[in-house]
Amino acid sequence: MNGVQGAQAGVVAHGADDGMRAALGARIADVFFAEPLFDALPDVVFFVKDAAGRYVVVNQTLVQRCGVKHKAALIGRTPAEVFAHPFGQTYLAQDLAVLAGGGQIEDQLELHLYPTRDPGWCLTRKTALRDADGAIVGLTGVSRDLAMADQKNPAYGKVAEAVRLIHEHYDQPLHLPALARTAHMSVAQIERYFLRIFHLTPRQMIIKTRLDAASRLLAGPDSVADIAQACGYGDHSAFTRQFKATVGVTPSQYRHMLRA
């Protein structure tokens, strides 16, 4: 088979796939059939929202994380009506950006503060839902709790050395080539194994480690500027921007919530 024939075969196969999807989709009575499947995943939040950012489908994990008893307490409400201020407003703004055609969100590292005031790290994905004409009619998304490291991976020992360097020196500038040398790997290798073992990029691991330390320090008396310096941010404003982008609130707002 030459290149042209191969390309033609690929087009035919793709068309057949689309036809099968359309045929099966037309026969499924409930387009939200995945809801009970996500109910069985305690470490994954799942939701579908309409064009106004209101919950249409949620799984049981989200119900528990919001501190309510039943799904009905969330349906028809936006995140701004469900989550504490200003977390809810931040989540709604994120939704509206996706709904406006701003592109999907892929594995965004986020620190959530649950009703128990316990922090939890997750990776969030959101993507727009479109009708047959391509118009955006809603969005769907998941937030996955960060899994434990895959210690059975043969490269775990080497990568763990780079993680140790991050944990011990997060207050200093950390560059990918230095982490790679510590693990006796190339830059491409360490990036690949970080994702496989920790489900994070090296940069995300650095951010997580620094903000873990910052969230602990914010419970104490140190100034935000001193905490920024202690966590590797020479610029106070850069620390505030990173903290808000990841946590959804400023360091001062987070401190206020911890003390409330």
UniProtKB/TrEMBL annotation:
Gene3D superfamilies: Homeodomain-like, PAS domain. PROSITE patterns: HTH_ARAC_FAMILY_1 (PS00041), HTH_ARAC_FAMILY_2 (PS01124). PANTHER family: HTH-TYPE TRANSCRIPTIONAL ACTIVATOR RHAS (PTHR46796:SF13), HTH-TYPE TRANSCRIPTIONAL ACTIVATOR RHAS-RELATED (PTHR46796). One of its GO terms (molecular function) is DNA-binding transcription factor activity. InterPro entries: AraC_XylS_family_regulators (IPR050204), Homeodomain-like_sf (IPR009057), HTH_AraC (IPR018060), HTH_AraC-typ_CS (IPR018062), PAS (IPR000014), PAS-like_dom_sf (IPR035965), PAS_4 (IPR013656), Tscrpt_reg_AraC-type_HTH (IPR020449). This is AraC family transcriptional regulator. Coiled coil: none annotated. Keywords: DNA-binding, Transcription, Transcription regulation. Residues 160-257 form the HTH araC/xylS-type domain. Transmembrane segments: none annotated.
